[in-house]
Amino acid sequence: MILAEGMLKPGALKGKNIIVTGGGTGLGRSMGEYFLELGANLVITSRKLDVLQETAKEMMVVKGGKVIPLACDVREIDQVEAMWKDATDHLGQIHVVLNNAAGNFISPTERLSTNAFNTVLDIVLKGTSQVTLTAGKDWIAKKQTGIFLNIVTTYAWTGSGYVVPSAAAKAGVLALTRSLAVEWAKYGIRSNAIAPGPFPTEGAWSRLLPGDLLKKFDPAKKVPVGRVGEHQELANLAAYLVSDYSSYVNGEVMTIDGGEWLKGAGEFNNLDQIPEEMWDMMDASRGKKA
Ligand code: HXC
Ligand code: NAP
């Protein structure tokens, strides 16, 4: 099936050293696996070292190459700086940072404690900012070029109820992406973002569609193309954006959601629920013959 096929040519990321935050699970893992297949070396980071070690082992068996697992809570600047030092000690110059780590859950906002709200803000906005600043300062000091790719969501610009801390934080990450794309371009540092629609992962599905919510709110039904995303489709886009083929793409957010967010936004898009017979009746009432 073409959706599950890699798109870039073999070796497209050869010689690139890439850090993937949240790289032990879900979409971070899928993107990392494809980077590895294309010749990159990886550092995968998150809080759970055991998960990272297992993932790194499995990735290297299947795809070969080098995968270094490093524990790092992106909320803690000391851990971020130590991770950056370890990563550069292992691999030398880092060429790409994929800011993918996130935390999220659904809840009416008025039910959230201050700590609950801050926890998501801290992982997503503060965490991404800390990793970005640590990498960017070092690249600038060493006169090295670099690439940031930040994973946001489409509600970074629409907003969304019931995931308000995540929406606020992802909006901040998008602003960070666009701002630094301009400010740091003079240092040869590019910044882009991807806004995925629904892509099934254990992490997201268990937190955003718990219990029988998945049955009641099938995410595929909200997507005009009628399905959720395949991980390889996202990996193809991510690989392009961290490759030198996208050198002229800077400050962009690329949406990959089958048209989902626009469906919600277009004033009359829900008229697809009107049956053909009703359109026939409306045609007849204005005198059009069948
Ligand atoms: C309300 C909640 C909650 C929930 C936790 N809290 N879960 N409040 N509803 N479902 C509250 C806790 O009570 C606590 O507040 C505070 O949040 C911190 O909780 P901890 O469990 O101590 O935090 P921590 O161990 O740091 O875990 C962080 C986490 C967890 C975000 C709560 O879910 C996590 O580890 N997530 C990482 C992975 C993840 O979320 N992946 C999904 C990304 S999907 P109090 O006041 O009690 O101390 C995504 C998709 C977006 O972003 C778009 C989809 C289309
Ligand atoms: P996931 O598997 O839960 O990924 C989140 C990762 O972040 C985990 O590996 C987690 O690992 C790590 N993480 C969480 N808190 C951290 C912290 N404080 N420090 C370091 N790492 C931390 O979920 P996913 O669906 O693949 O999500 C990946 C990205 O895609 C996220 O940015 C998410 O917002 C975005 N996204 C997903 C979807 C979707 O439909 N799946 C849609 C839009 C956007 P540990 O628990 O080991 O720390």
Describe the structure in brief.
This protein has helices at 26-37, 49-63, 77-91, 114-141, 155-158, 164-183, 202-208, 213-216, 231-242, 260-265, 276-285; strands at residues 17-21, 41-46, 67-71, 96-99, 146-151, 189-196, 253-256.
List the helices and strands and how they pair.
Elements (H helix, E strand, L loop, with lengths): L16 E5 L4 H12 L3 E6 L2 H15 L3 E5 L5 H15 L4 E4 L14 H28 L4 E6 L3 H4 L5 H20 L5 E8 L5 H7 L4 H4 L14 H12 L10 E4 L3 H6 L10 H10 L5
Parallel strand pairs: 1-2, 1-4, 2-3, 4-5, 5-6, 6-7
Helix pairs in contact: 1-2, 1-9, 3-4, 4-6
Bound molecules: hexanoyl-coenzyme A and NADP nicotinamide-adenine-dinucleotide phosphate.
Per DSSP, the total helix count is 11
Helix content: 40-55%
**Ends distance:** 41 Å
Radius of gyration: 21 Å
- Looking across the biggest beta sheet, what order are the strands in? 3-2-1-4-5-6-7
Uncertain spans: none
Overview of the structural elements:
It is a single chain. The chain is α/β, with parallel strands linked by helices. The chain has a single domain, classed as NAD(P)-binding Rossmann-like Domain (Rossmann fold), CATH 3.40.50.720. Helices cover 46% and strands 13% of the residues. The protein contains eleven helices and seven strands. The protein has helices at 26-37, 49-63, 77-91, 114-141, 155-158, 164-183, 202-208, 213-216, 231-242, 260-265, 276-285; strands spanning 17-21, 41-46, 67-71, 96-99, 146-151, 189-196, 253-256. The chain has a seven-stranded parallel beta sheet, sandwiched between helices. Helix 4 (114-141) links the parallel strand 4 (96-99) and strand 5 (146-151). The chain starts with 16 loop residues before the first strand and ends in a 5-residue tail after the last helix. It binds hexanoyl-coenzyme A (HXC) and NADP nicotinamide-adenine-dinucleotide phosphate (NAP). NADP nicotinamide-adenine-dinucleotide phosphate (NAP) is lined by residues 21-22, 24-28, 46-48, 51, 73-75, 100-103, 123, 127, 151, 153, 196, 198-199, 201, 203-204.
